[in-house]
């Protein structure tokens, strides 16, 4: 079984290289043209093209054709990855390590806004959209940011911001929320237990006072060992992959 998986991975890697080489030779090529030239069935080609586009190796061009993307030029020139590429790489690494949807958020006043998302391959998954905004107190990413604030700024937020109740589990009482934020600071990550959406558990980590990351796990796949494992993976990957955003170079 392990050998079969390794062979499949090698085959996918070879096909991805075939696609890039074919588009590079032609300047641009449609999926049908790529399929005919490489012998890759169109049914298999769709996933590979989507992956290559998501990583900027290819870009969609005119008339449903694909052209070489900026990732190849950057690699050839030795230029460092862009900010967007660094952030996307961290999300990909977290989702690959945890198997769950990961998202990057930015604070917008009393809300957090989704900046980027890497979706889980599971059919049952949470699918936040870029640009979606939710209140700080209801999401793991928001609570992680609240816990990371200086005490005086956190006090101002807690005493002035509205705290809508989205589910029976949303923490709207100031005392309960303060206790939860203290636990967040002590353990190094925030938890949202169906506090915004029934059936969705969240684990969030603040990157600084503006940005945070979170992983969303459907409640049937969530338990204490899963919580510890995913929180550990988030912290490990963020520590290993420096330069995620403006404050880290």
Automatic annotation (TrEMBL):
Pfam family membership, one: IclR_C
Keyword match Iron: no
Keywords of this entry: DNA-binding, Transcription, Transcription regulation
Domain HTH iclR-type: 10-70
Keyword Manganese: no
InterPro entries xref list: GAF-like_dom_sf, HTH_MetabolicPath_Reg, Tscrpt_reg_IclR_C, Tscrpt_reg_IclR_N, WH-like_DNA-bd_sf, WH_DNA-bd_sf
PROSITE patterns given in the database record: HTH_ICLR, ICLR_ED
Location of the IclR-ED domain: 64-249
Source domain of life: Bacteria
Descriptive protein name: IclR family transcriptional regulator
């Amino acid at each position: 079984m392990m050998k079969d998986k390794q062979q499949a991975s090698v085959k996918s890697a070879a096909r991805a290289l075939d696609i890039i080489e074919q588009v590079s030779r032609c300047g641009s090529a449609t999926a049908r043209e790529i399929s005919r030239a490489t012998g890759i069935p169109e049914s298999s080609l769709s996933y590979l093209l989507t992956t290559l586009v998501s990583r900027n190796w290819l870009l969609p061009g005119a008339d449903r054709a694909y052209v070489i993307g900026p990732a190849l030029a950057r690699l050839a020139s030795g230029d460092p990855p862009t900010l967007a590429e660094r952030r996307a790489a961290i999300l990909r690494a977290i989702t690959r390590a945890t198997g769950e949807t990961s998202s990057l958020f930015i604070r917008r006043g009393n809300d957090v806004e989704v900046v980027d998302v890497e979706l889980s391959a599971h059919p049952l998954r949470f699918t936040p959209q870029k640009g979606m905004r939710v209140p700080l107190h209801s999401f793991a990413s928001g609570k992680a940011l609240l816990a990371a604030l200086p005490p005086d700024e956190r006090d101002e937020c807690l005493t002035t911001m509205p705290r809508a109740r989205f589910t029976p589990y949303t923490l709207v009482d100031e005392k309960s929320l303060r206790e939860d934020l203290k636990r967040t600071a002590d353990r190094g990550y925030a938890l949202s237990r169906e506090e915004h959406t029934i059936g969705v558990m969240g684990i969030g980590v603040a990157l600084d006072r503006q940005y945070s990351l979170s992983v969303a796990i459907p409640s049937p796949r969530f338990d204490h060992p899963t919580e510890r494992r995913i929180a550990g993976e988030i912290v490990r990957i963020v520590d290993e992959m420096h330069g995620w955003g403006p404050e880290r170079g």
